[in-house]
Amino acid sequence: xxxxxxxxxxxxxxxxxxxxHKVLKAKMGNFNVNGTFQCKECGRVFSGVIxxxxxxxVKVLLSDGDLTETxxxxxxxxxxxxxxxxxxxxxxxHVQITYxxxxxxxxxxxxxxxxxxxxxxxAF
Length: 124
Description:
By secondary structure, the protein is mainly β. The protein folds into two domains: 7-51, N-terminal domain of TfIIb (Single Sheet); 55-123, no CATH class. 0% of the residues lie in helices and 61% in strands. It has strands spanning 7-11, 18-28, 32-39, 45-51, 55-64, 67-76, 80-82, 86-88, 94-101, 107-108, 110-112, 118-123. Strand 2 (18-28) and strand 3 (32-39) form a beta hairpin. The chain is elongated.
């Protein structure tokens, strides 16, 4: 990640939950942001280092009738993916997840992104 995000999800010291935080002032590291942040839930302002989730590539199998096309997409290690989720491929096509394949070949309806071997999707 090379661009400074406007907001970051992180555990708030006051709320105790993972909430959205506005980045008020910060410097980017490789996988962290060192700066001042404001919780959008309670308004608490604090300084610190927030680790950014790493991104990784996942295989995407796009079904279109009798044809299946293989491509890739990027997921973040902190994401949860679920059947029915929608996203855009790099070429702009809008797709919806029809099932999620795990490394052992089984299928799940909702999993952490780090457990995904492949996403089966359909365009619409």
